[in-house]
Write a structure and sequence with these properties.
alpha+beta; PH-domain like; Arc Repressor Mutant, subunit A; 7-stranded antiparallel beta sheet
């Protein structure tokens, strides 16, 4: 981190204010503001593109109104300006939201002496929740949870959803204050027979876990509505990822910069590392994480770190270190830049485990 008072740094994808397109930006969280920059040629532009003042700021996480973007958090400033930011994973999204919320509450408490904007734990009481009403809301065509197709161990399951999606939805709809509380509530729905397990992961958890831990807050644990419910209409299912290379288990996700093969320009890409089979795909984060713009098998690949002193052969642009290269079995060379030295080594180690 560049400055001592920097609380957090990293890539997020931001929706524009005037033109509602999505662009990857480098964000820096300070005690009183969130600043964002553009990466130019593999190097962060020294001039900031904007800032978000955190005093009086309100945060919604998860924000699930974008059907194809489940990893968005929403910030509303004291003046009512809305900002929509997307992270590379649920873990990253939740950590960003927690750090931003902590900074905002610290500013608010300095003025009032207490955290006036903190939610009242008595507003949502688990013991007073009507499970049938929760089910009705979850099953609603327009505002309910999105059902989609999932591929697991070569099998395609339709009209289902993941455990983490259930938890996201319960928190977003304010049926629960925390993810732990939401998982407990979802387990109650499962125990009452309103939901059912789909696939091996969720079935095993149901058999071995305690009553309040039957539903797993994880993207690989699948669930659906009970068979007694009539099929819900007007459900838009996501594209089924049926290709063999996209069936593997996701072991790592993150934003990295990649040098193009033809124009040699650097662009932020969402990289997804899978195992069984081992593949590395990359996506345009301004679009979605469903259709990769590229990828390759890791079988026979060589991955190595590049020295930070000087510009390595084959690398173009004013890059700032943290580079590594992957050479595929077909001798195609990929140049990739991580935001930090630590992330570079983490990616190299994770990729080497799959080669």
């Amino acid at each position: 981190m560049d400055k001592p008072n920097t609380l957090r740094e990293g890539f997020l994808v931001k929706r524009g204010h005037l033109v509602h397109n999505w662009k990857a930006r480098w964000f820096t969280l300070m005690p009183d503001r969130l600043m964002y920059y553009k990466y130019d040629g593999g190097r962060r532009d020294s001039s900031q593109r904007g800032k978000i003042l955190l005093k009086g700021c309100q945060i919604t996480c998860p924000f699930l109104e974008y059907e194809n973007r489940p990893l968005v958090l929403k910030l509303v400033t004291k003046t009512g300006v809305e900002h929509f930011l997307e992270a590379c994973s649920r873990e990253e999204r939740d950590v960003w939201a927690a750090d931003i919320l902590a900074a905002a509450e610290s500013l608010n408490s300095e003025d009032s002496g207490i955290g006036e904007n903190s939610p009242d734990p008595t507003d949502v009481g688990f013991n007073n929740i009507n499970l049938s009403k929760v089910l009705d809301s979850m099953y609603d065509v327009h505002s309910g949870i999105t059902m989609s197709s999932h591929v697991q161990q070569g099998n395609t399951y339709s009209n289902c959803f993941s455990g983490s999606a259930v938890v996201d939805w319960l928190v977003f709809m304010q049926f629960s204050l925390t993810r732990v509380e939401a998982a407990t509530l979802a387990s109650a729905l499962l125990e009452e027979g309103f939901l059912r397990t789909v696939g091996l992961r969720s079935c095993e958890a149901l058999r071995t876990a305690g009553p309040s831990q039957q539903l797993i807050d994880d993207s690989t644990a699948l669930y659906s509505f009970c068979d007694s419910l009539k099929k819900r209409g007007s459900v838009k299912a996501e594209t089924s990822l049926s290709a063999l290379e996209l069936r593997g288990k996701v072991v790592k996700r993150g934003y990295l910069l990649k040098q193009g093969h033809r124009r040699k320009n650097w662009k932020v890409r969402l990289f997804v590392l899978r195992t069984e089979p081992a593949f590395l795909h990359y996506f345009d984060p301004t679009r979605d994480d469903i259709s990769p713009v590229g990828g390759f098998s890791l079988r026979g690949c060589l991955v190595s770190a590049l020295k930070d002193n000087g510009v390595p052969s084959g690398v173009k642009g004013n890059v700032q270190g943290n580079l590594f290269t992957i050479i595929t079995q077909s001798d195609t060379r990929y140049f990739i830049q991580a935001p930090t030295q630590e992330q570079k080594m983490d990616w190299i180690d994770a990729i080497r485990e799959q080669t």
